[in-house]
Amino acid sequence: MVRSIHRVASLDEPTVVVANLPSNNIDRSPQYLPQASSRTEWARALPSPSPGELLDLVCIGFGPAAIGIGVALQDACEGSTVPLSYRPKVAFIERQAGFAWHVGMQLPGAKMQISFIKDLATQRNPRSRFTFLNYLWTKGRLNQYANLNTFRPSRIQYQDYLNWCADSFLDLVHYGEEVIDVSPSRQSSQSQSVDSFLVTCRDVKSGSSIHYRTRHVVVAAGGRPNIPSALAHGYSAQTNIIHSSQCMTTLPHILPDLGSRYRIAVVGGGQSGAEIFSGVQRAFPNAQTSLIIRGGALRPTDDSPFVNEIFDPEQIANMFHRKDHLRAASIIKDKATNYGVVRLELIERIYEDLYAQSLLSPPGSRPQNRILRYRTVTGLKSSPSGAAIVMCDNATSQYEKCDEPVHDQLEFDAVILATGYVRDLHLEMLKPLQQLAAQPTGASEGFEWRVSEDYRVVFESGKVDSSQAGIWLQGCNEKTHGVSMP
């Protein structure tokens, strides 16, 4: 067994971890890896498991974190003299029909918020064939990209990079399968401890059940749309109210005429809300667009060098070992790097657009595009015509000398909720294992899994054979590892 942590930088989730997986004496030192003739050839570094075979690892989800794990294993195995049949047997399970990353947020002109150096491989092994630079070279775009003089690629290009990496694992990924739960298993009736797990899935198309037996599980299922409880009924009842994750895939069906004078609202003052507000103005040049925010202004992301050190891998250990009250205070401060904030250049672009608009608008007229400040959305409902009505508490008069009403009811043809994500999908998946948990935390707020510094789920002593089996959580450990957790 390998008792080490391999950190792989990935999109907006700076690190992923591969720990305690069978090593089979594979040499993990970085080395020059010659260009393969095709990505299919690369995949031969990891064997394709046979149906029903006991696996070494099942990854639930196939986003950047899971691809990063695959890349780390691939790099470790390439060039090894260990026979293919003795290398780790891995399967990735993904609900989507094919690889797709934030498809609903692939807005034209949107850029990554982090450097391409924090890709799936560079910070762990800059000689890996899976680096962003090697992707550019392989695609014949290295020189042209260098001429852009930027560390932050467009989101569309990064999606292409991730897809390029994902293609190397086609024979290991089970698309169109949704994980229902993970339950304990024993390979021998004589075993006193759990030494494996049974992953139960549902085929999305047929509904049939599929089972995988595995020693190790990594849950990297991503998040689900965060819909505040006050907005949940309106969101589920009306097709013209959508989450930001659906923007590019659903909005064109709700508003099919790009030239119409639609009334569009975006709720949320973070990066996604600002990107959509700016992008919608360009896509629908005649529409009236409103950005509804709770504060008085869009706040810039703090990505200054010293603050950005919180994303360094060694800082995660520092965060984990802090006392609870210090860690909680640190997380609140660190959220200025990633939550409810906007890249400065986008703020400046929006301000310039609104200023240019004011030059062409008659004095005293309603702006075509506007930011509605100091408003808290309290409900959503439908008008008799089918339009969406946004109900707000308006605190403007508390902050400005004005006579605005304290409550608003605003009517729109489409409402986009840029309200973030909830990362709790692991709770339902791991329910069958709760009886094995070691002193679950957060009992007053509901069950929460304890994890160790390397993101491994902590089971009660003796109930799970840690030398044979284990589970790791990715993307849902902010309370223990901080905002930079994978």
Write up this protein.
Residues 1-43 have low confidence and may be disordered. The protein has helices at residues 39-42, 64-77, 132-139, 142-148, 155-166, 229-237, 247-254, 271-283, 305-308, 313-320, 324-334, 344-360, 396-399, 425-429, 478-481, and strands at residues 5-10, 13-19, 55-60, 90-94, 173-175, 177-185, 196-203, 209-219, 224-225, 241-243, 263-267, 288-292, 369-372, 375-382, 388-394, 407-412, 414-417, 421-422, 470-473. It is an alpha/beta fold.
Instruction: Report mean pLDDT, rounded to a whole number.
Output: 89
Percent helix: 25-40%
The fraction of residues assigned to DSSP E strands is 15-25%
Radius of gyration: 24 Å
Query: What characteristic shape results from the CA principal axes?
Result: globular
How many strand segments? Answer: 19
Question: What class, by secondary structure content?
Answer: alpha/beta
Q: For the terminal residues, how far apart are their CA atoms?
A: 23 Å
Report the total helices: 15
- Low-confidence sequence ranges: 1-43
